[in-house]
């Protein structure tokens, strides 16, 4: 049993909390904790292929920090002058790195959302509140993996006639890639139109429509929610005590790290690690049960 087997409301509360924390918190320790936990959980959920994607985001975040510091010149700690004569400051460099880490962390968390949330969960959560919104989100979540699969099929078919994305010289590859992208856009528009007409014929937008669901809020979900809100309480205490604040202009200023600060860091780390710990604990119990047979 993984985190995806929990109640959809629990999944929604958790991902809302961690993504909001990733965006709102500017303290380097909180950013690092959230990014590392998202990195580990995405690799656990999506396999080793995600490892390369996550590692590619790190140099991109560093490159964004240098780009940001080249065009934003706040701060008093001058490091050097760039090629156009503007000062590059330590404060702008660190803030640019923080913004890059936030963008990369949100992307990684969203990959976890796509791995956990399914279309039936979206319909269950938003079906009664807004049928149109639930239909749109369900089609969107289902369309993303279908687009990737269709792109591979188109590329494989074109490789048979020597016009794949990786065949020919640079200009031929560029032309083949544009053709594949054009075909994919056409297929996506047709698929969305067919899905919309199909769901409309089934009465998806009618008032009072109900949807079948197999979700039940059981004791497992209650235990998880208690631990989740306990971690949220500790994190909110850190917010009220300004442990998550960070000043980048004109100098780098943050609260001194005290023994109480480690309690808030630990609570936030436990919050971000809850799904990973749940899945590791489930795998351990499963292996133990098999060894006892």
Descriptive keywords:
2 domains; two-stranded antiparallel ribbon; two-stranded antiparallel sheet; 9 helices
Task: Write a brief caption for the model.
The chain contains 9 helices and 4 strands. With 293 residues, it is mostly helical.
3D architecture notes:
With 293 residues, the chain is mostly helical. It folds into 2 domains: 1-117 and 256-293, no CATH class; 126-205, no CATH class. The protein has 9 helices and 4 strands, in the order H-H-H-E-E-H-H-H-H-H-E-E-H. The strands form 2 sheets. Strands 1-2 form a two-stranded antiparallel sheet. A two-stranded antiparallel ribbon has the order 3-4. Helix 2 (28-46) packs parallel to helix 4, helix 2 (28-46) runs parallel beside helix 9 (259-291) and helix 6 (131-159) runs antiparallel to helix 7 (170-201). It starts with 7 loop residues before the first helix and ends with a helix. The model has no long low-confidence stretch (mean pLDDT 84).
- Report the structural category: mainly alpha
Give the assembly state of these chains.
Answer: single chain
* Secondary-structure element pattern, one letter each: HHHEEHHHHHEEH
Total domains: 2
Shape: globular
Rounded Rg: 23 Å
What is the count of helical runs? Answer: 9
Low-confidence stretches: none
The percent range for strand residues is: under 5%
What share of residues is helical? over 70%
Widest beta sheet: strand line-up: 1-2
Number of strands: 4
The biggest beta sheet, please?
Answer: 2 strands, antiparallel
Quick check: average pLDDT? 84
Please give the alpha-carbon distance between the first and last residues.
19 Å
